[in-house]
Amino acid sequence: MTGTPTLVDMWARTRVVDLTHTLQEGIPQWPSDPPLSIERWNTYSEDGSTANRLTLGEHIGTHCDAPVHFVPGGARVDEVDLSRFMGRALRIDAASALRGGQVDAEAVQRWERAHTAIRADDLVLFDFGWATRWGTGESGAAFLSPWPGLSVQAADYLVERRVSAVGTDTASIDPARADGYPAHRALLGAGVVILESLARLAELPDRCLVVAVPLKVWGGSGSPVRAFALVEE
Q1: Backbone phi and psi for residue 186, each to the nearest 5 degrees, phi listed first
Q2: Residue 77 CA from chain centroid, whole number
Q3: CATH of region 7-21+60-232, choose from 3.30.420.40, 3.50.30.50, 3.30.70.270, 3.30.70.330
């Protein structure tokens, strides 16, 4: 219909913010996960083209957790509907949370009163300012120091709001000192996917469109994602 903006028109009025850390050797990783290795496999001189062999765990870098990661019989990453990895995203500034502390349900509700109500199918992203600690080798060690996260009550509240995904710029949605991963279990148990180790959340407005698409790994408990936001100019 003439005069009605199309998706292409709206796309043209946005800028892209890359929310993904670069995969490279030496980045922070969960101690029990396999290390990331990037090995030159083909070369121009010998093969006429260049290609690498990647060895990596499912939960390396900016990645998602599928329900089966903590829930026996839960959906695998190849079974989760792609729509859960994209949509309206709300960025909650959680940088005032204490180191190793928690964001509780009341804090989320205060944010809603000040900004906008969380709707069904939203992606809710918690910006702790933790991505500034990312690095390789010794420079990235602070990323794995005790990080803040989400309380189980806050996770339960987001489940009640029927969100599609919950994300964080820390290594885990649970605080580093949480026992038994209660926020993981609450979210994944309800089919809510989790996005972890996001980058550049501070550059996002309160509301934008986010896409964080995983690899379609058969039986996968998670996958690295290429996450990005579309922000209106």
Answers
A1: -65, -45
A2: 14
A3: 3.50.30.50
Closest CA to 120 of 183, 166, 164, 67: 164
pTM above threshold 0.90: yes
Q: What is the mean pLDDT of residues 23-36?
A: 93
DSSP string of 7-75? HHHHHHTEEEEE--PPP-TT----TTSPPPEEEEEE-HHHHSS-EEEEE--TTSSSEEE-GGGTSTTPP
Q: What is the C-alpha separation between 165 and 67, in angstroms, rounded? A: 11
Which amino acid does the sequence have at 38? Answer: I
Instruction: Indicate the residue type of 220.
Output: G
Planar angle of CA 15, 18, 22, nearest 5 degrees: 155
Domain positions in the chain: 7-21+60-232
User: Tens digits of per-residue pLDDT, 70-120?
Assistant: 999 999 999 999 999 999 999 999 987 555 589 999 999 999 999 999 999
How many residues are recorded in the chain? 233
